[in-house]
TrEMBL record:
One of its GO terms (molecular function) is semaphorin receptor activity. GO terms for biological process: regulation of cell migration. The keyword Ion transport does not apply. Residues 1-23 form the signal peptide. This is Sema domain-containing protein. Residues 38-505 form the Sema domain. It comes from Macrostomum lignano.
């Protein structure tokens, strides 16, 4: 028997399988490696061409393959625990050394010639290099670094993570004759050594660090410039600079190092100037360092505006041919791409991506040095920003620039100067290649690569996690297009801090992960040649050969001639022949021909897709080519019987015809067209027949719809009429809405179009108001005359006379089907179309019968809320809603009998049913009353309301003004008491008021009036006597109930928790009655004792009431679940107690709930939890005082596995054995449904420690027989120790020991599992 797979082996196998899937995913989807606080990323390639990534975190380096399969971590040194002042600190007079222990943070790193160079925030700014070793840890000798640091002479490298340090590796010379060694060229903020505040005081300096000694080889004697992190504020001090990016470039035998920086303007401290600086690595004294202005903007911006900021992003890479040509640069020389935020003429901030050729930078920088060397008056920039012209410090001996690289000058003194507005040849101005609104996001990272077609693919990361892709052509307005945007931070709005361009993928870094993304996804995004090449993605090409479809082309060279790169080369359809096919044709097959502009140079295949384009319906066929005057016809042959079967019972259906060069796959195709398949015979009336998109014609004499090509064969004589337009169709339009009171008689008039007297001799109106077997009611119709229509052609008027048509059912409206039929007197007939009603309402073929008394039972419902078309009025005498009121009778005079309330009239007998609040407060100024009832007028202008003192004695009424917009005719309104009693007193507690409402009529009813009174309104004062919970969590926001009396007094009630020490906390009132108020407490700022206060609030006045009802606010609960209480299974029947039985603060929880989430079914089940207090024994054991127990809900179980009857009969299984097998299968089945659980303590959510699985309900299989035991003590002692075994299915892991209780008489039997 083979060895079983143990758990470690299984874990390893699953881990390898997961990574294998990840590697497969890399070819189509982005992949990622997650972590925390990532700061830097670099790419390198081993000798086999495999890409690797180096990641930096605050305390470690990670060496990982680019497919994220294996990661190797190197910790970055120990914390610095030095408590002594270093020698340089003592020399500088530092009184105290408050240098706290700190961890190493990687501040900068770069890859050069097989090594990783990096600098850390260790004391004195330690730097080192390590060889790049694929699939291994990076080895760093921290002991050697510590030794070098003992004699270091610089200050502490700034710990601020936002203080950026740039690092470039270039040759470093000890003398002009010596061979160079790698030097680390740093522009970095150092903490000021002579300042006690080491965390906040920094200076920006440049230095060249020697790795052999860890000493700066040369630091320029810079004046200290206070550094800042851009953009920390809009107001800045003068003479402040920040470095943003550095890079190196070899020109001939010289190596240069360049710095992008932002410096303050010497004229206005609110603005910053963008500059680029450079020095030669052979310049041993850094005396040839030189700067120039560099900026760019939108095309219409003022070029003299040079103020702004460099962004956080720059890259120095090869450009595309088009961009290089438009900038007069060589495509073989790298170009500097950088982001900038600049000001326009109105000082509005703009940001974008810019590009500048390295040759243009060098030419201008050389000119500055050359001019300054000649002693010209140009005020050139230098690293010392003082107002001195170059000529005041002397010139250089040689006019041939640049100096200090040839070694002939020997001058060892710096020159000084500042940039002035003169000398435009010494600055560079460009245009944005791409721009983004800085109000929504900032540009934080940048990458670029040239593409085969000469364009430049530009990738920009943003401060909110966006990755934007641009296709850049020339530096012309509109030449750059954004073709894609994605979120790489998974919605967390983390900044994309760095981008790195790999061989086939782009790598994006955020604080929490590094992710890889294909440069393009042409294969899956674009299905047609046209969409592929018009997508603006510069990587997409179209292939018609081995792999047909849209391809991602990453090679720098042009594709071969079988690859299409321009949309103009795609097949383009100029016309389609036979785009509508009649399946009633007598032919066996037909051709659909796509006329294209040029002859295809590959074989073309025809694919036939259904109307949803999700599958082929016919066999793929090769196309047939035909020559036409307009081009080349690509014909696809179709079988008419197959089309007839495809159409089925439908009238028409679309069929998509695709042309592809692939003989077996229609996923990617050249072009496609929709072909309409139709059967005119299925149209049942003229309007739909000739109004369809298919070429159908209607023959009214025969009442059939035929294809235009079949008209001749369908005609029986030359006199047959053929209708081709909707206006010619035999149809009727009702001249008014077809609405009729039940039991009334009325004439229905129609306008008749398409009247053909030759065979339309008579007409019948058919009315079908029920489904009775007797069939429709047939009424003769008469042609009266021609209508007085304003249309150009008069139509006859057709009248149907309806006599006392009614229905017996109780519904308010009955819809009758109306159909008008013509007859020729010879046995032929046909239906007239009924397209729409005259006023554009419902179907003209419907007649509505209605009963007003079934629509409304009250006057206001009848006159205000029934539809106008039903013409219902209210009959006063009969108190009934009716189309008309009855005439006089013996019991009523004529005037009283016929009295009615017209539409929108004033109804009699108004009534107030409800007023809120139901109880008045002591003060009424600003009090709003919500009044509802019936027959409360028909206009807000006709409503007057007054609050009248009813008991104990009369008093002047208080006017209650209607709140604008609150009136609902007849039903409700809100009114506001603007003032209380005239003497300024409050209302007396216990007194009674009534609201009097007077309603007046308008229009024809002007002068009429109705009055009504409300039930008595008592004056009360709210009083809280108790609260449902005396202890709550600080942030739980639980629901609690306040108990008391007269809590419904006043317009609204506010509940506030007050404290003598802390800020008050407002609560949300959810429900309110006279006896209790339900509120949701707010978040308390502090724990402690609070008391309840209530405030009665009117619109303009309020009054607060205090009660000594205390509430103890405790810290938020920190729940735990004991290991012995953890459950791993759910059962379908539910009821298993899930206990929250450990932790701190459970006694402060008011409400608890558990949510069980079925992962597979995506469905939630909830369970309310009950609070249970611990026993004294449990408290003595140190357990918490409170347990929350949540019974599991009932969840549906999957159907049990079946043992089929046929299988059982074949193997000889009896019916009894079959039942046993089915029972065993049902009881032993493991359902496998996984559930995750969350529980809520008030408003705070927590995760259950483990997920659980659904298992079958437990089942007892064997119960011991009855045991007779004497109940006296001696007999019990004689019984001794005895075990009773209870067997069952699914008892474990479903049940815990605490779930089962076994009683033997009144004895508790202890349990154990086996």
């Amino acid at each position: 028997m083979p060895n079983a797979l143990n758990i470690p082996e299984l874990f390893t196998l699953l881990w390898l399988l997961a990574h294998a899937c990840l590697a497969v995913e890399l070819s189509a989807e982005k992949t990622s490696y997650t972590g925390r606080n990532f700061t830097h990323i670099e790419l390198y390639t081993d000798r086999n061409g495999v890409e690797y990534i180096v990641l930096a975190q605050p305390d470690q380096l990670i060496n990982i393959r680019a497919d994220f399969q294996h990661a190797y971590v190197t910790a970055i040194g120990p914390k610095n625990d030095s408590a002594k002042c270093l020698p340089h600190q003592v020399r500088q007079g530092l009184a105290k050394c408050n240098i706290q222990p700190m961890a190493n943070h990687v501040k900068a790193m770069t890859v050069k010639s097989g090594y990783l160079y990096f600098c850390m925030t260790y004391l004195c700014g330690s730097c080192d290099r390590t060889p790049l070793t694929p699939d291994q840890q990076l080895v760093v000798n921290f002991t050697a670094i510590d030794e070098k640091l003992k004699s270091a002479t610089r200050a502490v490298l700034c710990r601020d993570p936002a203080a950026k340090t740039t690092l470039t590796v270039a040759p470093k010379y000890y003398s002009l004759e010596a061979s160079p060694e790698p030097g680390l060229y740093l522009a970095m903020p150092f903490c000021i050594a002579n300042n006690l505040n080491l965390e906040s005081s920094v200076e920006s300096v440049m230095s060249i660090v020697s790795l052999s000694t860890m000493q700066p080889f040369k630091i320029g004697d810079f004046s200290p410039f206070w550094s800042e992190v851009i953009p920390s504020s809009n107001k800045r001090k003068q003479d402040v600079l920040s470095y943003h990016y550095s890079f190196s470039y070899n020109s001939g035998s010289y190596s240069y190092v360049y710095y992008l920086l932002t410096a303050k303007s010497v004229r206005n401290s609110e603005f910053s100037e963008m500059r680029i600086g450079r020095f030669c690595s052979k310049d041993l004294y850094l005396s040839g360092y030189v700067e120039m202005f560099i900026t760019c903007n939108v095309p219409d911006a003022d070029q003299r505006l040079r103020f702004g900021y460099f962004g956080e992003a720059a890259t120095f890479v090869l450009p595309g041919r088009q961009l290089a040509r438009s900038l007069n640069a060589s495509p073989d020389e790298p170009m500097l791409f950088y982001t900038a935020r600049v000001l326009d003429q109105e000082l509005n901030m703009r940001q974008g991506v810019c590009a500048v050729p390295i040759a243009e930078l060098n030419r201008r920088l050389d000119a500055i040095i050359s001019d300054c060397g000649r002693g010209l008056g140009y005020r050139g920039p230098s690293y010392i920003r003082q107002h001195f012209p170059c000529s005041n410090r002397g010139g250089w001996e040689s006019a041939d620039g640049p100096p200090f690289c040839a070694g002939s000058s020997g001058l060892q003194t710096e020159w000084t100067g500042t940039v002035d507005l003169m000398g435009s040849q010494h600055s560079y101005y460009g245009r944005f290649l791409a721009s983004v609104d800085p109000a929504t996001e900032l540009l934080t990272s940048l990458a670029a690569r040239p593409v085969y077609n000469g364009r430049t693919a530009l990738f920009v990361g943003t401060s909110v996690g966006g990755l934007i892709r641009y296709s850049v052509g020339q530096v012309d307005y509109g030449s750059s297009t954004m073709y894609d945007r994605a979120d790489v931070a998974d919605g967390r709005a983390e900044a994309v801090t760095e981008l790195r361009a790999g061989a086939s993928r782009l790598f994006a870094l955020t604080a929490s992960k590094v992710s890889s993304h294909p440069y393009a996804d042409c294969e899956t995004r674009y299905k047609t040649c046209q969409s592929c090449l018009e997508s603006r993605d510069p990587h997409c090409v179209w292939s018609n050969r081995d792999t047909v479809g849209c391809l991602t082309w990453l090679k720098p060279e042009q594709p071969d001639r079988d690859i299409i790169t321009s949309a103009a080369e795609c097949l383009q359809v100029s016309s389609v022949i036979n785009s509508s096919i009649n399946v009633n044709a007598s032919i066996m097959d037909t051709l659909v021909t796509l006329v294209v502009t040029k002859e295809p140079n590959v074989g073309i295949y025809c694919y036939y897709m259904n109307s949803d384009n999700d599958g082929t319906v016919f066999e793929t066929r090769p196309s047939e080519l035909q020559l036409y005057r307009a081009g080349v016809g690509v014909s696809c042959r179709l079988s008419v019987p197959d089309l007839r079967q495809y159409l089925g019972e439908m009238v028409s259906r679309n069929l998509t015809v695709r042309l592809s060069s692939a003989p077996s796959d229609a996923t990617h195709y050249l072009v496609s067209v929709a072909v309409q398949i139709y059967n005119c015979r299925r149209h049942q009336n003229c309007t739909r027949c000739v109004g369809s998109s298919a070429p159908c014609r209607w023959m009214p004499r025969n009442s059939i719809c035929v294809a235009a090509s079949d008209v001749a064969s369908a005609s029986s004589s030359a006199a047959d009429v053929v209708v081709s337009g909707v206006a010619e169709c035999p149809a009727v339009w009702p001249l008014r809405r077809l609405v009729l009171p039940s039991g009334h008689s009325e004439d229905l008039d129609f306008s008749l179009s398409g009247f053909y007297p030759a065979f339309m001799r008579s007409f019948i109106c058919e009315l079908n108001c029920s489904q009775q077997p007797s069939g429709p009611l047939r009424l003769p119709a008469t042609i009266l005359s021609y209508s007085n229509s304003s249309s150009s052609a008069a139509h006859p008027v057709l009248r149907c006379s309806v006599f006392e048509l009614s229905y017996a059912e109780h519904e308010p409206v009955r819809v009758c089907r109306l159909n008008i039929v013509w007859h020729d007197g010879l046995g032929c007939s046909g239906d007239l179309d009924s397209p729409v009603a005259a006023d554009g309402g419902e179907d003209g073929g419907s007649l509505r019968l209605y009963k007003c008394h079934r629509m409304a039972e009250q006057c206001d419902d009848c006159t205000l809320y029934t539809e106008e078309l039903y013409r219902c009025v209210w009959c006063v005498a009969s108190r009934r809603c009716s189309p008309t009121c009855p005439t006089s009778s013996a019991a009523l005079p004529a005037a009283a009998a016929s009295a009615s309330v017209p539409r929108r009239g004033l109804c009699p007998a108004p009534r107030i049913d409800r007023i809120e609040p139901a109880r008045l407060a002591e003060f009424v100024s600003g009090l709003e009353l919500a009044v509802s009832g019936a027959n409360l007028g028909n206009s807000a202008d006709g409503v007057d309301a007054y609050l009248m003192l009813h008991h104990p004695s009369p008093a002047p009424p208080l006017a209650c003004s209607l709140v604008p917009g609150s009136y609902r005719p007849g039903k409700a309104f809100r009114c506001r008491l603007l003032a209380g009693p005239a003497d300024g007193s409050t209302l007396q507690l216990g007194s009674e008021y009534r609201l009097r409402v007077r309603l007046t009529g308008t229009g024809a009813q002007a002068g009429s009036a109705e009055t009504t009174y409300s039930e008595p309104l008592m004056v009360g004062r709210p009083a809280v006597t108790a609260v449902s919970a005396d202890r709550v969590q600080q942030s739980g926001r639980p629901l609690v109930t306040l108990f008391g009396s007269q809590l419904d007094s006043g317009s609204s009630l506010q509940v506030t928790m007050l404290s003598d020490k802390y800020m008050f906390v407002s609560s949300e009132v959810l429900t309110r009655t006279a006896d209790n108020v339900t509120v949701r407490l707010g978040n308390f700022h502090h724990t402690g004792i609070y008391f309840v206060s209530t405030t009665v609030q009117n619109c303009s006045e309020s009054k607060r009431y205090y009660r000594n009802i205390l509430l103890q606010v405790l810290p938020d609960a920190q729940p735990k679940i004991l290991r012995g209480s953890l459950r791993r299974g759910l059962i379908p029947s539910g009821g298993l107690p899930f206990d929250i039985d450990d932790g701190v603060g459970l006694e402060a929880v008011v409400n608890a709930e558990m949510i069980f989430f079925d992962v597979a079914a995506n469905k939630n089940y909830s369970s309310s939890c009950a609070r249970r207090n611990r026993t004294l024994t449990s408290l003595a054991n140190g357990d918490g005082a409170v347990v929350w127990s949540c019974p599991s809900p009932a969840v549906p179980a999957p159907p049990p596995a079946e043992v089929s009857q046929s299988t059982a009969s074949r193997d000889g299984t009896t019916a009894q054995e079959l039942r046993v097998k089915r029972s065993a299968a049902a009881s032993s089945q493991q359902y496998g449904n996984n559930f995750t659980i969350k529980y809520r303590l008030d408003s705070l959510w927590f995760d259950y420690p483990i997920s659980v699985s659904l298992v079958p309900d437990p089942e007892l299989l064997e119960v011991p027989s009855i045991v007779s035991v004497a109940l006296d003590t001696d007999s019990r002692q004689q019984l001794g120790s005895r075990e009773f075994k209870i067997r069952g299915r699914n008892l474990i892991p479903t049940l815990l020991v605490s779930d089962v209780t076994v009683m033997l008489g009144d004895w508790h039997c202890p349990l154990r599992t086996s």
